[in-house]
Design brief:
The chain is α/β, with parallel strands linked by helices and about 220 residues long. It is about 45% helix and about 15% strand. Helix 2 packs antiparallel against helix 7 and helix 3 crosses helix 4. The N terminus is likely disordered.
Length: about 220
């Protein structure tokens, strides 16, 4: 009984909500690390403002550039409390142009760092890594294959820690190491299916100071026997 109570207390402590002010400050600090791809004379809006509005809009359910602009307009009074907004809310075309030029890897790393700063310690937490195809992301007429993502999931806190796209003509074996490189996994327990049962992958997990559970099948005959 005492162990159960302690376990519940630890879970409740992990799920303690981060104050809104800290979330805002952390997000601003992390997006400031992303290089601005624009020519200086075209910088009517701060890159930090554009990125923060777009991230918050997507969290709120935005699915396109116009949704981001509409979110900004609807929340402008609140956004002005912590953003510069020298020329008001950026237009949908501005959001589109910035995201066409920005380094996606830098953005991915920024979001992963920001999320983990809010999660705090993941020591002892199980982090499953798995690949899934995004439903409806293919286009037969254009010959576009479905988007396949490898995702790291924080099981206790029920949050995605990070995602990496599996490139065309590749597989999860190349995508998983790229995802592991993004994350601070110190003290966590990483689980991967049989595709991830690779010597180099296990070495990388140990290098990240995490433990691992991998699936073993007959495709590794010597080890399997």
């Amino acid at each position: 009984m005492k162990l159960a109570v302690k376990s519940q207390a630890k879970r409740a402590e992990k799920r303690h909500l981060t104050p809104l002010g800290d979330i805002q400050a952390n997000l601003l600090n992390y997006v400031a690390e992303i290089p601005d791809p624009r020519v200086q004379r075209t910088q009517k809006h701060s890159l930090k403002d554009i990125l923060v509005i777009s991230i918050l809009a997507v969290i709120g359910g935005a699915e396109g550039w116009e949704d981001m602009e509409n979110y900004g307009i609807a929340k402008q009074q609140w956004l002005e409390e912590f953003l510069e907004l020298p020329n008001g809310i950026p237009s949908d075309d501005t959001f589109r142009r910035v995201f066409e030029k920005i380094n996606p890897d830098a953005l991915e790393q920024c979001l992963a760092k920001w999320l983990q700063s809010m999660l705090g310690s993941i020591v002892g937490e199980i982090i499953p890594i798995d690949g899934k195809s995004v439903r409806g992301s293919y286009d037969r007429n254009q010959g576009v294959k479905a988007l396949h993502l490898v995702t790291a999931w924080a099981s206790e806190q029920r949050l995605v820690l990070g995602q990496v796209k599996v490139e065309d003509r590749s597989n999860e074996i190349t995508a998983i190491p790229a995802l592991l490189e993004l994350l601070d996994l110190t003290g966590a327990i990483v689980t991967i299916d049989a595709m991830g049962t690779q010597t180099e992958m296990v070495k990388q997990i140990r290098h990240k100071k995490a433990d691992y559970i991998v699936s073993l099948k007959a495709n590794h005959p010597t080890l399997h026997s």
